[in-house]
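Hello,

Our lab assistant flagged a job as stuck in the queue for most of the afternoon. It eventually completed. Since we weren't sure the result was trustworthy after the delay, we are filing this so someone can double-check. Below is the sequence as submitted and the structure that was eventually returned. Let us know if re-running is recommended.
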Amino acid sequence: MKRKNINILFLGGAKRVSMARMFKAAAQKLGYNAAIYSYELDKCVPVACEATVVEGSRWSDRDVISRLDETVENYKIDIIVPFVDGAVGVAASYAATFPGKVFVPSGSAEAAELMFDKVRAADALEKASFPIPATYHPGDPCMRLIAKPRHGSASKGIIEISGIERLDDVMLHAGDYLVQERIDNREELTVDCYVSVADGRQLVISPRRRNVTVGGEVSDTETVVFPEAVELTRRVLSHFDLRGAVTVQLIHDLDCPGRLLIMEVNPRLGGGAVCTVAAGADIPSLIISEAMGLELAPAEARPGVRICRYMQEVVFVDGVCQSSKTI
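-- returned structure --
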């Protein structure tokens, strides 16, 4: 029997080579041939070895929705998967503008806008009585602090505050930062989730330990058993009615046993989610299944599965990817 074709568009999937392969493998298991496309500013990006790269607009451009629609039409796209913060709201807005045209594994643009504004997100979490690191307000006693850019990502622009002079400098631009207590003796956890877009069923909630990060992205991570992290994440997903792929970042304060805090909530697939998929919680299969109207079933990741990343070069000659060539 001839397999059906399915076309998947990554938004900002420049480095997601392994995830592209996982989507192709998931499609094969479900009886489809998957073609991967990735919407980027530059055609010379690593994912070109597994995908057709489409040059497009910046997420902030006024014409981004119309140009994205041209891509959907030209390549007969079935599924759009956002991988970077700015792309999530764009994907959600596209789905709202063209309902039913493609499947987008994410919730509303409003939820994305809330969670990607660190100040507003911290305020919403605090008001809902979720545990977060203590937020600093002018006049509070000075403590170990960290300042995060309000709309930052991948740990860029973070400032560790070690004295009153540095705090004064940051507070001159207080509206641009979320300033919170700094927890130095900590364990960082990521919880990869998939929630049915159609009915809100929580199908994957899988915690993993972040062992090593480089440039804000995990390079060494391992699936773990952590019931408290699962329960806290479950409550966050329900309270904010988050749908699709969601990544919840947690801090386990090792100086205070049992103190588990929400660092941030990202309504998209995380870069380290390949570990969770490799451990058996096949989020790409769930995304494809939901898009194609197939039956969905909860999936659990096996604990103790670890991934360690390494750097590999992709060769381009005159702007064309030479996927068969390695260095």
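-- support follow-up --
The delay was a queue issue, not a problem with the job. The result is valid. Residues 62 and 249 are 31 Å apart (CA to CA). The first strand starts at residue 4 and ends at 11.
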